[in-house]
Write the structure tokens for this entry.
Amino acid sequence: MPLILRILLLISSLLSFIFVVRRLRKSEVQLYDTTFWITLSALFVLLSLFPQIAIKVAELIGIQSPVNMVFLIIIFFLLGHCFLQSLRFSHLENRFNKLVGDEALKAEDEKQEEDS
Amino acid sequence: MKDLLIIIPAFNEEKNIGSVISELKERAGDASLLVVDDGSSDGTGEILKTMGVKTVRHRVNLGLAEAVRTGMKYALRHDLKYAMQFDADGQHDAAAVERLYKQAVKGEYNIVIGSRYAEKKAPLSLRTIGGTMISLCICMVSGEKIKDPTSGMRLYDRRVMECFAASSHYSPEPDTLSYLISRGIKVTEVQVSMNERMSGRSYLDITESLRYMFRMCSSILLLQWIRR
């Protein structure tokens, strides 16, 4: 892996790590939501410090350039995470819709009881 | 028509809602009316209060599908057999309610659509072309010919209402219609006339219409096979 990429990877993963931790401290993001990002940045730190890991694994699966493998891993993680987010968003929206609808019906029920 | 609930989803319709309701009271016999105020921020709520019509209010705007679903849940809770979706913008003709209802109580059909083109031919315009495309998709998937799939005037029986209440996948849109047909729900159309909007602007402009058409067609053609 080229040295410049290793340095870039190291700096950006450290920065993103700091960013995530700061957001967590400010309670802008839930604790368990940060685990993904922290793990990911830790993985990048690891890869930039010990590029041999990337080289070995790339050799093992038959990818010529370790850089490509690093990209592949990043894309894979991001797509997975993106899908999970979409899933969670749908869940949330369904529950929200149900809540608002049920609350509206309940308010109407209570009004009827008051009237009668 | 004691076992019919007319659901009127309303979002910021202060200009039209009053006349729509008084017309329905006058011409829709003894059917119950329910306005689902979908988080209106204008004077809609005040008008509804003065008109003394049953209202269920969403605190935030959830959109047409959820407003209709809330109405159907209400109908199920109150043991009503049929529910009908009726636009709050004055497009629908109150006199058509009875005709749709009469068709429904015959018991052969689960959904009765108030159709603009059941007997009359559709004029050629961007909007009707969109409708025709959707019809074609429905026909390809379910084999049924629905001439006015985008009509917002539809009467549903209990079986359909229970589907709507149980799952958020069901919406008062052509893709759900198509899916229901392929699951054995019987649909028919009754010719009605519709007015232009009395006031305000329809939420469907050209790009919106295209996006809507694309979403419906892709949902009918692709998602029907995997949805539940």
